[in-house]
Amino acid sequence: MADGVRAVVADDSHFMRSVISDILSDGGITVVAQARDGEEAVSAVIEHQPDVVTMDVEMPVMNGIEATERIMVESPTPVLMLSAHTDENADVTFEALDKGAVDFFTKPGGEVSMEMSRLKDQLVEMVSSVAAVDVGATRSRGGTSSDSGAVATTAGGSATGGRETGGSSSQVSYVANPTLVIGSSTGGPKMVEQVMENLPIEADLRVLIIQHMPEGFTGRFAERINTRSDYEVREATDGARIGGGEGLVAAGDQHMEVKNYRNGRLRTKLTQDEPVNSVRPAVDVTMRTAAETIDDPLIGLILTGMGEDGADGIRRIKQAGGKTIAQDEATSAVYGMPKRAVETGCVDAVLPIDDIADGIIDTITTEVT
Predict the structure, then answer these.
(1) Is residue 141 part of a domain?
(2) By three-state DSSP, how is residue 12 classified?
(3) Does the structure show a pLDDT above 90 at 228?
(4) 20 and 83 both lie in a single domain
(5) Which of 62, 138, 152, 360 could form a disulfide with 39 if both were Cys (CB 3.0 to 4.6 A apart)?
(6) How far apart, in whole angstroms, are the C-alpha atoms of residue 93 and residue 87?
(7) Among 60, 101, 66, 98, CA closest to 82
(8) Sorting pLDDT into bands at 50, 70 and 90, what band is 153?
(9) Measuring CA to CA, how many Å separate 267 from each of 80, 183, 222, 257, 264?
(10) Residue 261's domain spans which residues?
(11) Is 50 exceeded by the pLDDT of residue 161?
C-alpha cells in the first residue's frame, strides 16, 4: 500500500523528524524532505510535490496550522497532523482540520522512540491512506442542504413541514422517536460536523456518533458539534441518557453500548472490552447494541474511513428493520469503511456528503395529504 508514496516530514525536533522518517522509510514510504518549521514545510512541498505531509502542530517561525493553510492555497497536498496529547493541542488540531488537514495522529508520551515503534504500523497505514486523498475532490461544496421549510411539532411527537415535491408544496410528517448512529474514521470529523449542521432539530433525532479518535480529543469534538449544530451534543459518559434533539460522541478508548431504551430515551454503557476491528471505540459495538435494543425507527450511517468497522453494524441494523446509508466514494477521504458496508448488500442508499442529511430526513418522513 505504501509503495511509491512520497512524504515530507515537518517537525521542529530533530529527534522526532528522524524517528518519523525512519518509521515511514521502513514502511516503504519515501521521505523526500524534512522541515524544521512550517515555512520550510511549505517550501519543501512546493519544491518536491510530495503525496503527503506529516505536520507537527507547534513549530517556530510558522506553526502547523498556518503551514497547512498555505499549502492548501499554494500546492494542495494531503496533510496528516501529528499532535501531542494535550487539551491545548486538541483545540489547535481541530483548527488545522478546518484549514484543510485530512486527519491527525497523536504523538505518544513517555519514552517516545519506544512508543512510536509500537505504533509504527498504524502510522504507516494512516500516512498511506491520507496520501491517497484527493484534497480538492473531497472538499464540501458548501455543506448546503435543501430547506425543509417551517416545521411545527404535533401532539403525537412527530413534526410536519412544507417541502417542495415535484413542483408542488406538500407536507411531511416526521416519524416519532428516530435514532441515528453515525460511524466514521479517517477524514471523518469534518464530515460528521457537516451532517450534524444540516439536520433539523424538528426531526427530534437521538444521535450516537462513533469517530475513531483518541482519548482527550472526543470531548473537544463533541463541543464543536454542539456549537455548530442545533442538537445538544456531549461526550458520552457511563450511564448517560439522551432523548430527542440530543447526541453523544463515543469517548476515546471506550466502547459505547446502548444499554436500554424506553419511552424515546436511551441509556449508554461504556466499556473497555477488547478492541473490535482493532479499534476502541468501535462502530460495530454501538450499532449492534442499538439494533438489539431500540425498537423505534433506527438509521445507520457510515462515513469516510479506513478499515471495515461498521460493516457488521450496518448488517445488524438492516436485519433489525432499520435504514442504512453510506457515503459515496467521490466525497470520501478514504473509501474503506463505506465500501465494506456497501459490500454487505445491506446499504439502502450511497450518497455524496452534501446529500446525506437530506437522505437521513427522507428515511424518517412521510408525506401528509
Answers:
(1) no
(2) coil
(3) yes
(4) yes
(5) 62
(6) 10
(7) 101
(8) very low
(9) 35, 18, 18, 9, 10
(10) 151-368
(11) no
**C-alpha cell recorded at residue 328:** 459515496
Q: Which residues are identified as catalytic?
A: 185, 212, 309
Which three cell numbers, joined as nine digits, stand for 214?
483518541
Burial class (CB in 10 A: 0-12, 13-18, 19+), 171: middle
For 145, residues 6+ apart whose C-beta sits below 8 A from its C-beta are 198, 354, 355, 357, 358
pLDDT in tens, 111-150: 555 666 678 888 999 999 899 888 875 444 333 333 333 3
**Does 181 lie in the same domain as 86?**
no
The answer to whether 105 and 83 have CB atoms below 8 angstroms apart is yes
Co-location of 231 and 358 in the same domain: yes
Please tell me the distance from the alpha carbon of residue 127 to that of residue 130, in angstroms, as a whole number: 5
Which pLDDT band, with edges at 50, 70 and 90, does 207 fall under? Answer: very high
Residue with more model confidence, 64 or 136: 64
Amino acid at 130: V
% of the chain with per-residue pLDDT over 90: 71
Amino acid at 149: G
* Domain of residue 70, CATH code: 3.40.50.2300
According to DSSP, residue 84 is labeled -
pLDDT at residue 199 in the model: 98
